[in-house]
Amino acid sequence: MAAAAVTGDHRRGKTALFLIACGWAGAAPHWLDAGRSLLPAITLAFVLGGYVLRTVLRGWGVASEEAEANALQLLADDAWPRVDVVVAARDEEAVVSRLVERLSALRYPEGKLVNWIVDDGSEDATPELLDQLAEKFSNIQVIHRPPAAGGGKSGALNEALQKVEGDWLLILDADAQLQDDLLMRLVSFAQQGGWSAVQLRKAVINPQHNVLTRVQAMEMALDALMQQGRLAGGGVVELRGNGELLQRSVLESCGGFNEDTVTDDLDLSFRFLTAGAQVGILWDPPVQEEAVESVGALWKQRQRWAEGGLQRFFDYWPTLMSNQLSIKQRYDLACFFLLQYALPVVSFSDLVTTLLTRTIPTYWPLSIVAFSVSGMAYWRGCRRVSEGPPLPSPQPWTLLMAITYLAHWFVVIPWVTIRMSLLPKRLVWAKTSHRGQEPIQA
User: Fold this and answer.
1) CATH number at residue 112
2) Which residues pair with 168 in a beta bridge?
3) How many DSSP H helices and E strands does the chain contain?
């Protein structure tokens, strides 16, 4: 049975303890003698660097290639399950027409696919456009929610969950771009692999817009490679919201989508994990989406991701470290948490202590190892054969830009941690704006 999330002000207290622990860990080595001040960082560099290196190498192995081949072995005609595609859309007039056209072009056995679009209290022309599109396309079902319905994206998805009848749900964002054979290949992969959920690789459709979108395209390749490596090592695959296929019976047994979180996908990842449900990752075909095009939009998006990421660890931490999970899963989660969330806060504390005491930074060996192995992950991920928009070429200058770009997490994570520790709980579902970029053909 999935663990219930502990929310509310409990998160604030847990975040404060996390901040204090990381602050102490970053400052304490400065009071050791010169010969021992680097020992904590060097020890962690070996442990966490080894974890990341093994994960990167596993992410491009024979097992991954064999798993991808399952997506090309389509099911027999009478074996196709019923599928509901669900999209929560709020103020998406720029992309909703294109979305409906893509959904209507999906190839799937007749009578076994229903497309649902939830108008989540839109204040632009989205409601009118959806009603017009529903009249034009018979396989589109529209649900209208009032602006004050509550629950954010999770609330919109839960409303659709009350109406769907399919065996599987494919959750998409409004800017999603899909190949017409994507659904058949994805469902084949899920059925033949025995997965309870499958996350598609996310590909950026506007990588050539500017440097920021290009490095985000590389980041998505890195993320998918790492996910495959984590799975191959007995670790955990996380859902990414756009392009996640969910078995409805498992989703319902987990209580649906959590309306008390700002990242429904990350929270649901742990709900499935603690329920013993298996989550897979599929490299091709990808789900295509827009990357944010400005620093301001990136800052807004990453704050939400950071807050939701920390929330789910604090909500489910007792179960995550219990015998309910395997040793490999617990090790994978611990290393991921230390790298993604603890390292940026510890590094921030190290920097502050360095400035106050006029001493030398002590965690630079760990940071160097983390960034170096990330560069290898970029290189391997971007060199993989892929469908959809071409991945940026991992040339030295491009890799340097992408590695430098990762440093934004060393600002976002400490800021969000401090804010969550000091300010009362807030639930603000800040959507990402979409412009309606056309996909790049491979």
Assistant:
1) 3.90.550.10
2) 83, 247
3) 16, 7
